[in-house]
Design a protein that fits this description.
The structure holds 2 protein chains of 2 kinds.
Chain A (H helix, E strand, L loop, with lengths): L2 H5 L2 H5 L5 H13 L1 H19 L10 H29 L1 H23 L5 H11 L9 H25 L5 H27 L4 H27 L1
Chain B lengths: L20 H11 L3 H22 L4 H18 L9 H24 L9 H5 L12 H6 L3 H12 L4 H8 L3 H20 L1
Helix pairs in contact in B: 1-2, 2-3, 2-4, 3-4, 7-9, 8-9
Classes of the chains: A mainly alpha, B mainly alpha.
């Protein structure tokens, strides 16, 4: 190898990045060429000085407070986005429709209850047990999962009861009830899917729990209404 | 056959196996949203990240502080993407280089309108140009390098990254990295040893 070729290999030579085959002729040349030997020595000094530079330098003291402030702003923005997303679910037309229908059904049920005072001990007992499902909002997903199973059991019991007594309700009330249940079920499904994506979101748990309570409450009140019809 | 072997000297950083238990615990807690745990990570790694930022930013402490803050805020936002496949310090350093390059791209679009870019050393070196005639301090000499040469030198000779890693980070060829490194060393020799 010529002097000019070897000079281009000196960087890799000093950092040990040449193959053994290439290293030997370069070493031989450096041993006899004063220019290349001086360059190797100079490169070694630069590389050694770079290696001696401090790896750590204290940043300005205020840097962390700036970073923390930016993180807190980030967290607030994320929370606001989540609240906005959840609020968005309730702004959907069918959820609003469900709420409206629910009011109508509950109002009809209240009127029907007022008009009738008939009841049975068996129904009162069942109703009392169903009321226990509409307790406080569970604090965690695990607690909610247990509570959800209670809701589903109670919904099934009430649904059976209503199916048996449907004939005793006015046709328009039955239609309102079914429409209302459909829209509540859609709201439950949407909240359930959102919770699957964000299991730690307490607001979603609270919302889903509240929607289940509404469904149980609607079915329970309608069942009481049928007892009075 | 190439006379040069593939890079075998990795960056002089801790590996995942050497990440201490306290740091791993802080990473996990921070990933679940614990800002206090993230502060512990900051206290552990800020010095190294700041040293890198200071050299990438040609010794400008205000720019370096701003870059370091950007890096840690981005680290917080992207923390859940850290899977421990490399050392946390390496992950932070990569984030610092990427953030610097992203900022440089948007800066260059703005600066290009008012300053010719054929000699980027003017940006970093202008304030120090009178000092280059004198024997320079190593940090000053690095700061006076043209940007491409400075990046290659800081990442390879100071931080210990391999040619291939630098090439990937800077989106250039290994040959370009080596050429910039050669240029950086030559300029440093001229400025430090005249």
């Amino acid at each position: 190898m010529t002097h000019d070729v070897i000079r281009h290999l000196l960087d890799d030579y000093v950092t040990g990045e040449l193959t053994e085959d290439a290293r030997a002729p370069v070493a031989d040349h450096v041993a006899t060429c004063a220019i290349c030997a001086a360059e190797v020595e100079s490169l070694n000094r630069i590389i050694a000085r770079a290696a001696e530079l401090p790896k750590s330098i204290d940043p300005p003291a205020e840097a962390w407070s700036n970073i923390r402030a930016a993180i807190e702003r980030d967290k607030e923005a994320v929370t606001a986005h989540r609240v906005s997303s959840i609020a968005g679910i309730w702004r959907r037309p069918y959820v609003l429709a469900a709420a409206a229908v629910l009011l109508v059904v509950l109002s009809s049920g209240g009127t029907a209850l007022y008009m009738s005072e008939r009841s049975s001990d068996e129904d009162s007992s069942r109703s009392a047990s169903l009321n226990s499902a509409s307790g406080a909002t569970p604090a965690s997903l695990a607690a909610f999962t247990i509570e959800e199973n209670n809701y589903l059991r109670n919904v099934a019991v009430l649904q059976d009861l209503l199916d048996q007594q449907e004939a005793s309700l006015a046709p328009e009330t039955v239609a309102q009830l079914k429409a209302s249940l459909r829209t509540i079920d859609e709201a439950i499904l949407e909240a359930r899917n959102a919770l699957a994506r964000d299991p730690a979101n307490k607001m979603l748990i609270e919302m889903l729990s509240g929607t289940y309570r509404q469904k149980v409450d609607l079915l329970r009140r309608t069942a009481e209404m049928t007892r009075g019809s | 056959m190439s006379a040069v072997v593939s890079d075998s000297v990795g960056p002089n950083l801790s590996t995942i196996g050497e990440e201490n238990a306290a740091a791993l615990d802080s990473i996990r807690r921070a990933q679940s949203g614990d800002v206090d745990a993230f502060e512990l990570l900051y206290r552990e790694y800020a010095g190294r990240v700041y040293a890198l930022c200071l050299r990438l930013k040609a010794g400008d402490s205000a720019d370096a502080t701003e870059l370091m803050q950007d890096v840690f805020v981005k680290a917080w936002r992207r923390l859940e993407t850290f899977r421990g496949e490399c050392a946390f310090s390496s992950w932070l350093h990569r984030l610092a280089v990427n953030t610097m390059l992203e900022n440089a791209r948007s800066d260059s679009r703005r600066i290009a309108r008012v300053l010719p870019m054929d000699d980027t050393s003017r940006l970093a070196g202008a304030a120090r140009s009178s000092g280059i005639d004198l024997k320079m301090d190593m940090e000053d000499a690095i700061a006076s390098l043209p940007k491409g040469a400075r990046l290659a030198f800081v990442l390879h000779d100071v931080e210990g990254y391999q040619h291939q890693e630098i090439a990937e980070q800077l989106s250039v060829s290994v040959g370009t990295v080596k050429a910039q490194l050669h240029r950086a060393r030559r300029l440093l020799r001229e400025r430090l040893e005249r």
